[in-house]
Amino acid sequence: MKTQTKIVLILVLMTFVGNVSADFVVQTSDLLLGEAGYITNTPGSSVSFGTSGITLNSLILDKPSAQVAPPSDGSTITSFFDLWTEVSLTGAINGTCGHHHHSHISWSPTSGANIQPRLFNSEILALDISGPGFLLRESPTFASTGRHTIANIGGGFFAIESYFDIFLEISTDGGANWSPSSTSLPITSVTPEPASLLLLGLGSLLIKKRK
User: Fold this and answer.
1) Number of domains in the chain
2) What whole-number distance in Å separates Cα of residue 170 and Cα of residue 137?
3) Element (H or E) spanning 201, and its range?
4) DSSP helix/strand/coil, 74
5) pLDDT, tens digit, for every residue of 87-101?
6) How far apart are CA 139 and CA 180, in angstroms?
7) pLDDT tens digits for 18-67?
8) 86: Cβ–Cβ under 8 A, 6 or more apart, which residues?
């Protein structure tokens, strides 16, 4: 890949990520759900659940039990695995709990394998979370869709960005009755610093190399 193309890719991804408030995840493979992890879109993001009196204040999805290779052109893949899930609730249910829970996610490419960056439509098909006094699930009625972006930025590095708008339901009676969330909850890929700085550093090195 030409140096100019690599720099343009970095700039395009910086603009795209800025629009959705997600972080870059810079890693040494193009695997989906690689080193990403997801967190509620902004500090203070929350959703309430009908008349249950319960508010979900934060949601973290991390540490998948398996990593997924991107699907080929024209195909969709669905994967089942466990994610480390951390939930913070207030109201009738109060507190924070974390555990590995079952998930089911699909990815469909919207750009060709030779086009950079690669874009994928994604959807959380199922997410089942249990905690003390509650069950939490991805809505069986509303689709929790998102987007996944992978860019080969050279030097054996890939820039990953991903987000979902997830609809949830909660039950406090063992699943007999469910209360839907008032709105979808945006969750985005996140990685600790200095990964974002690393990406910018790679861009600087490419520019210096060009000079």
Assistant:
1) 1
2) 7
3) helix 195-210
4) coil
5) 999 999 999 999 999
6) 7
7) 444 456 678 888 888 766 678 886 666 789 998 889 999 989 888 888 88
8) 58, 59, 60, 62, 96, 97, 98
